[in-house]
Amino acid sequence: MFKLSHLLIFVFIFLIHSSFAQEKIINLKQISSDVYIHESFLETKDFGKVSCNGMVVISNGSALVFDTPANESASKELIRLVKDSLKAKIIGVIINHFHDDCLGGLKVFHALNIPSYANQRTIDLAKSSGFEVPQNGFDKTLNLKVGNVKVKNYYFGPAHTSDNIVSYIPAEKILFGGCMVKAIGANKGNLADASTSQWANTIKKVKALKPDVVIPGHGKFGGKELLDYTQKLFTIAD
What residues of the chain score a pLDDT lower than 50? Predict the structure, then answer.
């Protein structure tokens, strides 16, 4: 009986260890014929384990990635999935802003000679913060194309950070808003580098794109109601 109980305890511990070992570090969710949301996880001091969204656009065997996963191991796994499961070659990575949940895996992409793009403000902030620095900068607008899909990247002004951008696919009316856009029910989140007084006005400019699908930096994607919710969240006086 003593030996059996010890055996059962060993099996129980082994199963627990196996379940943690098999925990996924990256998730991919297809939301249209060309577009996927990639989800990774960031361990934070103030908010615990945080789910982080990015976007992947694939057309004619090529892919653009919007934000790296939150760390290098998840970035390696995303690159593997795009290559092996989605049969696409990554031709570029676009960084939304200078925080870890956007460029935490950028070294992995650069090591594979995948070019990176960001607002010039992001490049400057990454450099001054000692982070991996995106390679190619732009001021207000950057137009990219992957296969037959055009993606427009815009800087509309400060919100979650002074450098945050949005990326928009006009043909599908899909917007990757990043951390500037809040999921329904979310609170204001990390405001360490935020411009709360300008956030609502920046969202007002984003709304002019009239997207049908909106992907926030964290939480569930939805429609234009996410933009309405975010604008209202930061219009209310503190």
Answer: 1-22, 238
Contact 36, 56 (CB under 8 A): yes
Give a yes or no: residue 35 inside a domain.
yes
Indicate whether 10 belongs to any domain. Answer: no
45: domain CATH number is 3.60.15.10
- What CA–CA distance (Å, rounded) separates 77 from 69? 9
Q: Is 84 exposed, middle or buried (0-12, 13-18, 19+ CB in 10 A)?
A: exposed
Supply the pLDDT for residue 12: 39
How far does the chain reach from its first CA to its final CA, in angstroms?
A: 64
Looking at the 3D structure of the chain, how many domains does it have? 1
pTM of the entire structure?
0.88
The answer to whether residue 9 sits within a structural domain is no
Residue 16 domain-assigned (yes or no): no
Helices (H) and strands (E) in the chain, counts: 7, 12
Catalytic residue positions, numbered: 97, 99, 101, 160, 179, 182, 190, 218
Q: Are 104 and 76 in contact (CB under 8 A)?
A: no
**Which tokens hold the place of 102?**
């956007």
pLDDT digits (tens, 9 = 90+) for 83-130: 999 999 999 999 999 999 999 999 999 999 999 999 999 999 999 999
Three-state helix/strand/coil letters over 66-91: ECCCCCHHHHHHHHHHHHHCCCCEEE
Under a CB-based contact definition with an 8 Å cutoff, are residues 32 and 70 in contact? no
What is the pLDDT at residue 7?
39
Domain that holds residue 128: 25-233
H-helix or E-strand spanning residue 61: none
